[in-house]
Please model this.
Amino acid sequence: MVESNASAKFWLVLQAIVWAVCLAMVILLFVKPAIGLHAFWDVLIPVAPALIALLPGVWRNICPTATMSQLPRRFGISKKKKMSVKIHGRLVLLSVLLLFAIIPLRHTYFDLNGPATGTFLIVATLVAIFLAYTYDGKSGWCASLCPVHQVEKLYGQKPAATVDNSHCAECSKCVTGCPDSTPAASPHLGGKVWTRRAAAFGLIGAFPGYVWGWFQVQDYATLSAGLENIVNTYAIPVIGGTVTLALYALLISSVPLQKRKTIDRFFAAGAISCYYWYRIPWLLGFSQFDGNGMLVDLTDTISPIVIFVVPYVTTAFWVWWIALKRNGLRSWMKMPPKTNNSIATVDITVSA
Model:
């Protein structure tokens, strides 16, 4: 009990620190947009995929939106409605569609507009709180509509460690197939309804090409310029995603069912490898587009040879970590004790 209390206090302090830092970022997005944009898009966001892949449980515990979304439950005002499998599947599919819709808008709007990014974060947090007020546990946002959650399940299939669940003192079985407590969670988790299957298929197959396509588009300096190039902004990621989706469909159709997990992991490794292949050089000023995604200009300090080698090193690491390394069946978090009145939801198959 002492250890449990110490763990709860540790996570509470860490959540407060992360929340305060993110609140400062949001304020900066409005009052000092240039600093806020760099802090959010060029510091926090580049770290997130690696954290999600290596320690998804840590991210799930400290995510500021997740922390805010759980306030209704902490204060005992949540309605705690049980979410049906059908509604959950729809929200999961919607989250993937939102992910694909939002990513290109960074080039045309969010990357260069601090108040727009800040407003987006505030709205997302309010939606998360409302869903958590309506539905039980994490079912409303953290395990369904949150676009980042689908990436968590894609990248976080081999967590480095299992941590305590700071948000769930007890398990109320709020969703079928808890992503936090299920060993080797993947986008297929709880995927018997067609919406979940479609979300998993689209995310795994299209994401590597979509990420590649995003890095082939430049940021536009003004909203009007972005709107003029909106078709191009979406077209290249969509084309890239379509190519890898077609490849994924071909591969999974030609192998036994038990081999598909290996293909899934290679596609996940491909997506995160592609991200860091471009993102690390861009952060240091080595972009094919002048200044895009740059945190600090080190073009006169770092040898181009180093920048040439780094993407190969990061790619080798992610392929090994996600696709090749053996680490057993490990969950993101320890399963909390079940509530006495928890009712198991029953998964059903819904035909298209």
Remarks:
- Residues 2-31 form the longest helix (30 residues).
- Residues 139 and 171 are 12 Å apart (CA to CA).
